[in-house]
Design goal:
By secondary structure, this protein is α+β, with helices and mostly antiparallel strands. It is built from 12 helices and 6 strands. Strand 1 and strand 2 form a beta hairpin.
């Protein structure tokens, strides 16, 4: 697999995905990109450019998988919507996480969706739910970071971003991959992860070891997050889902230490029974 780095997408680019190709297209080149698709593939996408753009919305990228013997999927990139910071309000204090190389990380995440799709029915189950698709895409992201950067700095950035996003917006629960990302980050050192020549080799090793969160458990964490951090909370309920607090604290601790500092993070987690 090619390990091309896309620091700035300025023209349509073809990338190998398994035995197929993916087309990466900047939003500004959408018309030209669509002309490069076969009628069979084009028929699987939204009917008009306007509909495609509306589907993208304010996201910085999206992937549209297709069923084709040559093309794996179509990735549309809009770098103008790439965030430079992630904000979160915790106890009326606004914290900021600066985001570096976010366009690159977003693209790698979207490529991860296609890489995992190519492995379904082989190394991965034929059917995956939405949450599995997201955490597997972030697992690919971590592997790419280790492979190309040799460290986990940007991987931890993605981890912190996932945490802060879900504290800010409950809709982001579907992308709260931190409980799965931390397993990769703790099971493998960067050099170990980089030693897997191909992503498929890494996922063949990691997937059987991964402890996956059930839908019920994710729902409980979501309820606890909303009760603890939601803007509509009128009164504290210290005993609410108390049996999940330490688990949530475990996932939040690295992020809170990053944005608050170790001492304040420890104090906050202790006060909220999350240690």
């Amino acid at each position: 697999m090619s390990l091309i780095t896309f620091s700035l997408i300025t023209s349509l680019t073809w990338v190998p995905i398994g035995d197929k190709q993916a087309l990466i297209c900047p939003l500004t080149e959408l018309t030209q990109c669509l002309k490069n698709l076969s009628p069979v593939v084009r028929a699987q996408l939204p009917a008009s450019e306007t509909e495609i753009t509306q589907t993208l919305g304010l996201r910085s990228a999206m992937v549209l998988p297709v069923d084709d013997s040559y093309l794996s999927g179509f990735i549309l990139v809009n770098e103008r919507e790439t965030p430079g910071v992630q904000l979160a309000n915790i106890d009326n204090v606004t914290y900021q996480l600066d985001l570096n190389d976010q366009s690159q990380l977003t693209l790698w995440h979207e490529l991860g969706h296609l890489e995992n799709q190519a492995l379904q029915g082989e190394l991965l189950p034929l059917k995956l739910d939405g949450y599995q698709h997201e955490w597997l895409a972030d697992s690919y992201l971590i592997w790419r970071i280790a492979k190309e950067k040799g460290n986990y700095q940007l991987a931890w950035q993605q981890y912190h971003r996932r945490n802060l996003s879900v504290l800010t917006n409950e809709i982001q629960m579907s992308h709260w991959t931190s409980p799965m990302m931390i397993q990769v980050l703790t099971l493998y050192r960067p050099e170990q992860l980089a030693s897997f020549a191909h992503y498929r080799d890494f996922i063949a090793d990691f997937y059987p070891k991964a402890t996956q969160l059930s839908a019920v458990l994710r729902k409980e964490y979501s309820s606890l997050i909303q009760r603890t951090f939601g803007s509509s909370v009128l009164q504290p309920l210290p005993e609410y889902l108390f049996w999940r607090k330490q688990g949530l604290g475990f996932y939040l601790k690295p992020t809170f230490e990053q944005i608050m500092g170790a001492e304040k993070a420890h104090q906050w987690l202790a006060q909220n029974a999350m240690l």
